[in-house]
Amino acid sequence: MNAELLTLLVSREMPYGKYKGFLLADLPGHYLGWFAREGFPKGELGTLLALMYELDHNALRQLLDPLRSKPRRSPIGVK
Question: Rg (Cα) of the chain, in Å, rounded?
């Protein structure tokens, strides 16, 4: 696993959609699962979303906590 990619998960924001502006590391599991079923985007964003899906699916999100500079943003209440 590439440590640089893990750092990008806690610094890169989702560029579009319902969760635009959320850090990739803060995207909810159901949203990541949707991408896993429908297909991840091409390029770096797709790679990062696939990695985040694997971390979420295997209950490993806490591995990102030491890399965070800000507390986690909760998607609760997002419409």
Answer: 12
pTM of this structure: 0.84
**Apex 72 CA angle, 63 and 18, nearest 5:** 110
Token code pair at residue 3: 């440590």
75 lies in some domain:
no
Reading the block at residue 52, the tokens are: 């985040």
C-beta separation of 23 from 73 below 8 A: yes
pLDDT in tens, 17-59: 999 999 999 999 999 999 999 999 999 999 999 999 999 999 9
Does 13 fall in a domain? yes
Measured between alpha carbons, how far is residue 79 from residues 7, 20, 57, 76 in Å?
28, 12, 23, 9
- Establish if 12 belongs to a structural domain: yes
